[in-house]
Amino acid sequence: MAKQFDLVVIGAGPGGYIAAIRAAQLGMNVACIDAWSTADGKPAPGGTCTNVGCIPSKALLQSSEHYEQVNHHFAEHGIEVKGVNLKLETLIGRKDTVVKQNNDGILYLFKKNKVTFFHGMGSFSGQVDGGWSIKVSGKAEEELVAKHVIVATGSTPRQLPGLEFDETTVLSNDGALRIPAVPKKLGVIGAGVIGLELGSVWRRLGAEVTVLEAMPEFLAVADQQVAKEALKAFTKQGLKIHTGVKITETKAGAKGVTINYTDSSGAEQKLAVDKLIVSIGRVPNVQGLNAESVGLKLDERGFIAVDDECRTNLPNVWAVGDVVRGPMLAHKAEEEGVAVAERIGGQHGHVNFATIPSVIYTSPEIAWVGRNEQQLKNDGVEYKAGSFPFMANGRARALGDTTGFVKILADAKTDEVLGVHIIGPMASELIAEAVTIMEFRGAAEDIARICHAHPTLSEAVKEAALAVDKRTLNF
């Protein structure tokens, strides 16, 4: 007999597991289905983010940053280290441990919040009395009935046409996190978040890294002043970045990959690498849902079609995260998951897309929220800009990390903060203050009048706000 639930969530990534927990907190009887497994077949909830995305990449970035520091920067602190050895197996093993801790943490949270977890593939069987019939295909098949369903099946890496992932030579983000030996030459196609972060990891560990980007501008999604600073920093570190590239042919073999391409000037070039990371975006994961059998509508790009509140075309069926429109970010998925759970519970969940921050965890880190200068100009908005360099910040000097700046854009008339753009140390943490002030539609003057502890990196945010009114105190 089918098991009855108020809500069944398909997918236990950031959007799915958070939605399930929030719904359970609101008193619903909730089930969550997820097929992700560890190497030994045990459940591994957390989706791409926990298993092969945000969490493991940050673990590798941290480890590789330590390696970079001990090899190149400890001496300036008076610390001399000789005979540094890289034990890559241990480094990768630590990353795996961090991932498992997060997997286990989610399973614990399900138990704590009385969410019933099913390990397997979830798919629609049809509409029945009481809601929707959901099939779980795993070690043991189950049939569930749910009044409401949330689809949170995430996304998968986009393949380069004619070049399939083998995760040995041609790598997605998955294979790029577990290369067994540091390659001598590593190619990266796509200078987005994944390409830059993983390219940075392996460059620090000793690989010669070349990044090929199709867009004519580097980091076109970021404020161009930030992008130029980032390109300068990454190039100085040793990343070889080529923009305006058009790939004409790729050949993969046992010994590596050859990429033929034309550069920004139209000249033909050839790149031979031992390993190739392809990071050209991600596609919504709708495979296996059996969506067509129940008439679940997809849009022209293959995403599940939803309205502003994440409702699909089917009654009481919702979708959140990477599988729907909007930025493919874990925290966006979480916010949508909470909002949908609250809507199902009779509350008024809300997600403000204008205040969703973006972060690139390279060194220097890059983070922004709101609109950048080129967007404000295109929108015809009159604005004021203020910036402050980390080289004038006492804490940054003490850290020995003074690259970059904070930039604040405010409405020329009302002083409302319209965008904040940071490149520099701990930008991922500093952006939270900007998100908060924008969520409350605060002004640059509000930031400028708030007392910031000294010495802290956050003082650079305050000084940038002061710079909007041309009254910085330390620069």
Protein model, in words:
Its EC number is 1.8.1.4. GO terms for molecular function: dihydrolipoyl dehydrogenase (NADH) activity. Its cofactor is FAD. It is a single chain. This protein is of the alpha/beta class and 475 residues long. The protein folds into 3 domains: 3-157 and 283-351, FAD/NAD(P)-binding domain (3-Layer(bba) Sandwich), CATH 3.50.50.60; 170-280, 3-Layer(bba) Sandwich (FAD/NAD(P)-binding domain); 355-468, FAD/NAD-linked reductase, C-terminal dimerisation domain (Enolase-like, domain 1). It is built from 14 helices and 21 strands. The chain has helices spanning 14-25, 47-52, 54-72, 88-112, 173-176, 193-204, 224-237, 291-294, 330-344, 373-378, 394-399, 427-439, 444-449, 459-468; strands spanning 3-10, 30-34, 116-128, 131-138, 142-151, 155-157, 170-171, 185-189, 208-212, 240-242, 246-253, 256-262, 268-273, 275-278, 282-284, 317-319, 358-360, 365-370, 383-389, 405-411, 417-424. Helix 1 runs parallel beside helix 9, helix 3 packs antiparallel against helix 4 (88-112) and helix 3 (54-72) packs parallel to helix 6 (193-204). It is globular and about 70 Å long. It starts with a strand and ends in a 7-residue tail after the last helix.
